[in-house]
Amino acid sequence: MKLTVAVMVAGLCALALAYPQQTITDEQRIERQRDILRLFSHVNQPSYYKDHVEIAKSYSIHGNYEHYTKPEVAKYYYRIYRYGLLPRGEIFSVFYEEHLQQAIALYRLFYYAQDYETFYNTAVWARQYVNEGVYLYALSVAIVHRPDTYGIILPPIYEVYPYYFYNSEVIQEAYRYKQQYYGQGYSQQGQQQGGYNGYTINANYSGYYLNLHPEQSLSYFTEDVGLNAFYYYYNIYYPYWLGGEDYDYQHERRGELYYYLYQQVLARYYLERLSNGFGEIPVYNYEVPFETGYYASLQYPNGLQFPTRPNYAHLYEYFYNYGQRYGNNKYAYSYTHVQDYERRIRDAIDRGYVYTQEGQRVNLYSEQGINVLGNLIQSNPDSPNSRYYGALEVYARHLLGYSYQPLNQYQVAPSALEHYETSLRDPAFYQFYKRIVLYFQKYQSHLQAYTEQDLIYQGVEVTNVEFDRLVTYFDYFYSDLSNAVYVTPQEYDQDKVQIRVRQQRLNHRPFTYKIYVSSDRQQQASVRVYLGPKYDEYGRYINISQNRLNFVQVDHFTYQLQSGQNVIERNSHQTYHYQNDRTSYRQLYQQVLGNSQVTVSQNEAYYGLPRRLLLPRGTYGGLDYQFYVIVSPYVPYQGQQQQQSADYPYPRIGSGGQYLDNYPLGYPFDRPIHYDQIYHNIPNSYFYTARIYHREVDEINSSTAGNQQE
Hints:
single chain; alpha+beta; Hemocyanin, N-terminal domain; di-copper center containing domain from catechol oxidase; Immunoglobulin-like; 3 domains; 24 helices; 16 strands; globular; disordered N terminus; disordered C terminus; Hemocyanin/hexamerin_mid_dom; signal; nutrient reservoir activity
């Protein structure tokens, strides 16, 4: 489903109704979208828009304290700004404490601006004077959390900051074209591709020049720009540091959501491993050399290369500083911190309780237990004791990323694991979070398994499931690369430089599926559809008791069952929490300037997995997977939820609006399974074996044309 500008405005106005103190016209909404887009243009150099230059010169934080709902926030930021912050041109990483605190301070400055005008003036000021990485991160978090900008569409991060998504040779080619050929007319290649008046660069994935390990053959998946953008946006909507007085996440079950996100990402990665002949995600021991090396093929905007981890890296060597001083660099002790924090988490799971900072016990095996455990492991503001249980993720990323110790906090060269935009590229990411998910599994092993009576839906039976033929293929994805190069003030103002990148990506042919359900009466039901492996890499059948964590949720919806036979028909465009590729920056900007009918994806004001990665890559002869469908009684969500209109389907962060019912995330695979047959016996569920094929895109097009002729 698509939205035009008019529909987008109608939806945004629906949001305004939730905040009756604000009166926002259609024109204001479109103007704000334009304002936001301009703030993201060429962030690695100062803005040359005339109004930006004038605002940056005339506006001051210290002269407008009264325009912030918390003046002390503005006073604090101005004080640390005068002390000296991360300079422009230096690399920012949210996993360095000094960087993070500066980003949080800037976010609070944005968030507590009392009106949109103050927010915009503050953003323009920061655009000119604050480190570009800190600015980009803090501004993005503020936009999706402020009431008066909620629903504004963020431009694709891979177009705003392409350095973190495309290999260094691609960026280098963009530099070369800009220096040598720009101004002599557009290229012949550009003329031949849909009338595009610019230069097109073909991009490869890492491993094209150097492949350190066989697992790098999965780079088409791990380096998919849409997948990495999804992970980045998830952490923009749910920053691990945000909570408490700044923002209320109590309705989001954020600890449980934290677990479920990583369990689903790992399950999807495992499906892709199977299609490439790999098996289980490897496990590692901190005392044993880390087998999987990684070569990022990325370069920072300031010219530094991303660090490389060799095969069989000795993690304890991270402690060594080779004669240099440690200073206040606490990350040099990551090897010790990671093992201490993991031991404390294991002890808490075995004991069944955690200690707060005041020494009080919090029961882990309660209704909110998994939420408490998730908050504790993530070390967010809702953690019972973040000081004792520690920021495990932060230190593990430093350790496994294998970046060398910086001489000071402002001159760093973080690894791929130390940026949300690049984390998924490194195989170590999946190996570390497998350890995290296994801690949750250890916790779940102490929970009571579902019985047949728990799972059965009286009077309801799933009699059959049908899927269309499932076919995957690679097609070309075009992305704007213009922000990678530096431009003159005239080029900046007129948006004259046009460079794009073309890269193959995994996709699948759209498909429809049907669920046949009989019901003895009219009633509302919750329907879940999962996709998981049926055989391992050796062709051996995997029991569901050993396989439950490998299932990916592909759909979830409520349905009004009628008495008698029901045929539920869904298609791959309706899948829950998946989204189409984001509309390009250039299209969005043209849309708000000319009010043209350029369309945007329905849920671009939220985050979601790329819909084209719904299926793992198939094989020419077909690879067997299995779908699991379960129909359950509808149980309304018990938390507070924002009312959503049909025109504005985006759940507001903190409202619990994304929950369709009150079942645990991942139900019914959220508990141990002792007897496989229970899941095969209940009549309201169904296992369906599906074979996924892979074809060349030309074969897909020819077969589609043939079907249309028939």
